[in-house]
Amino acid sequence: MGGEVGNGQDLSFWLDPWLLRNPLKEEFPNLFRLEKFKKCKVKEWIVRPVSNSSGKWIWRSEPDSDVELAEWSSLCLLVRSTFLSNRKDGWKWLGTDSAGFSIKAVKSMFNLNKDFSSRFVWEWCRWIPKKCNLFAWRAEQDRIPTREALIRRNIFFEDSCCLLCNMGVESVDHSFTSCGVSTVIWQKIQAWCRTTNLFVFSFRDVLEVHNWVSLEGHKKEVFHGIAILAYWRIWKARNEMVFGGKPFIINEVFSDIRSLGYVCYSNRSKDRSLSWKDWCRFVNM
Length: 285
Fold this sequence. Notes:
The protein has 285 residues and is mainly alpha-helical. The chain folds into 2 domains: 1-114, no CATH class; 130-281, no CATH class. Helix content is 47%, strand content 2%.
């Protein structure tokens, strides 16, 4: 659906798709970052002077970089063709079906963006808690509330950077593969489990990494569960930091991964005679 401008009092200038198929916040992200009133309506924006300069519009800081000025110039050209009227704002169907809006047309539009070529099969780990398996399943589908995911749901943050390393947008793949903090924990797990050095680039790689390590038999199954436990514990520690103000301490998180893994494996697997000493040495499994 796309917005049709009338009096400009109902449509959001940045957040609704009205001037283009996508919201202007996606087409002009650098200007949106500077915007002080991100929920302003079309009328509130249009009535202000629009020229090659920023006019009287209130920014957090004036657009001055080449990218910001280029976006400002393009936005001004688009807005010049917009005129307000006395009728109310409305919505229109933007689907590809020439027959107009219908449930069938909506389904067809959604299916255009689906990838049916994937042959990935979710592999459940039996010896770890169900909540950890469910977390990994949701994360693989990009269904956990990272900042990137929340922004897609129109929940805005002034800073979308990763809360652990402050480098890069906090997404599923970044948080668990390229985040500097997660990488250190992963290196500790590799040293503990005595695996070859591995490089993962997506969360799906994490879920399949036990198939690539130089481990055999039960150790491969154990490593599969440890990998899922590790990233569940990283996400839990991240939430404790955000909502409880608890510092994220790498060694503490790693110790929790190892101790929780031992409790789960020694109680849920057939090998219940495994000692804590052997678990810490990752032998006799």
